[in-house]
Write a structure and sequence with these properties.
Strand content: 5-15%
InterPro entries: His_Pase_superF_clade-1, His_PPase_superfam, PG/BPGM_mutase_AS, PGM-Related
GO molecular function: catalytic activity
Distance between the termini: 53 Å
Helix content: 25-40%
Pfam family, one: His_Phos_1
Protein name: Phosphoglycerate mutase-like protein AT74H
Order of helices and strands: EHHEHEHHEHHEEHHHH
Radius of gyration: 21 Å
Strand order of the largest sheet: 3-2-4-1-5-6
Organism: Anisodus tanguticus
Length: about 325
């Protein structure tokens, strides 16, 4: 059980102070052994190449949820399974680990799961759950090619996050249901519904879609809508590893490089935040770092000792 150990996003609380010489990225952090019942990693995977990715005309004759993987997509998913195995086993050096899968109900994601699963033995898999809330964004029913081209051009002008497809969803709608899923995920962990042995590293693998994975990251790291708009989609069978850092905070920077994060569309400030999270805990890291506040405020006084008239002058601008 992890009651009183994590917050709503599952961030661990740690207490013991780390010596100054071990502090990195100007983050003040504390450390103690992280409770094993927390997931060591949450891995977000996009499905392999589908027939719809290869040919948009598929959406005009087949419901989105039924579109299968291509032979290339099957190979991509199988390769992803091998790479995920290397990640969760620390390249074969660790034996104390298990995986639990969540999967979108679409044919292409379930097929991706099937191929990824070939990399694992039965004893390594704690379980699997089909989860409708991580399904693809709803673009409407059968899609007329010329109409969809105009609609997607309109979305680019309106903004990818708030634009709602006719008879479908916006990215904001997907954000709402992914947020609900995230809350349920932490209840699963808190109540030990995954039947996880705390002596083993727990790895959650979420096989979903590009947009659902991006809004999951947005929710997890509290990214703004503007930051979301610059994110690039995951490639087919690509994955992102959110890993527990030394102080109990989750970060992309534990597993991924700065170059990778730049390619994904993270700004230098977002990358700096990820590096900070890799070493900080929840009690020392917070959302009030200067770059985050500056995204919302034009000017904040540096201290309460600043000249009163200077502070008051902001109200007259």
């Amino acid at each position: 059980m992890i009651n009183n150990i994590v917050d709503d996003n599952g961030h661990a609380q740690a207490q013991a102070q780390i010596p100054d010489q071990q502090q990195q990225h100007h983050c003040h952090f504390q450390q103690k052994p992280i409770p094993k019942c927390l997931p060591k990693r949450i891995i977000l995977v996009r499905h392999g190449e589908s027939e719809g990715n290869r040919d948009d005309a598929m959406y005009t004759v087949m419901p989105d949820y039924r579109i299968p993987l291509t032979p290339k997509g099957i190979g991509q998913a199988k390769e992803a399974g091998s790479r995920i195995f290397d990640v969760v086993s620390d390249n074969g050096t660790s034996d104390k680990w298990r995986v639990y899968f969540y999967v979108s109900p679409y044919v292409r994601t379930r097929s991706t799961l099937r191929e990824i699963g070939r990399a694992f033995t039965r004893r390594r898999v704690l379980g699997v759950r089909e989860e409708c809330r991580i399904r693809e964004q709803d673009f409407g029913n059968f899609q007329v090619a010329e109409r969809m081209k105009v609609i997607k051009e309109t979305r680019e002008r309106f903004g990818r996050f708030f634009y709602r497809f006719p008879e479908g969803e916006s990215a904001a709608d997907v954000y709402d249901r992914v947020s609900s899923f995230l809350e349920s995920l932490w209840r699963d962990i808190d109540m030990n519904r995954l039947h996880h042995d705390p002596n083993d590293d727990l790895n959650l693998v979420i096989i979903s879609h590009g947009l659902a994975s991006r809004v999951f990251l947005m929710k997890w790291f509290k990214w703004t809508v503007e930051q979301f708009e610059y994110l690039n989609n995951l490639g087919n069978s690509e994955f992102r590893v959110i890993q527990l850092g030394l102080g109990g905070e989750y970060s992309l920077a534990v597993h991924h490089t700065e170059e990778e994060m730049l390619e994904w569309g993270l700004s230098p400030e977002m990358i700096s935040d990820q590096k900070c999270r890799a070493h900080a805990n929840r009690s020392s890291w917070n959302d009030k770092c200067s770059w985050y506040l500056d995204a919302f405020f034009d000017h904040l006084a540096n201290s309460d000792d600043d000249d009163y008239d200077e502070v008051k002058s902001n109200f007259s601008d």
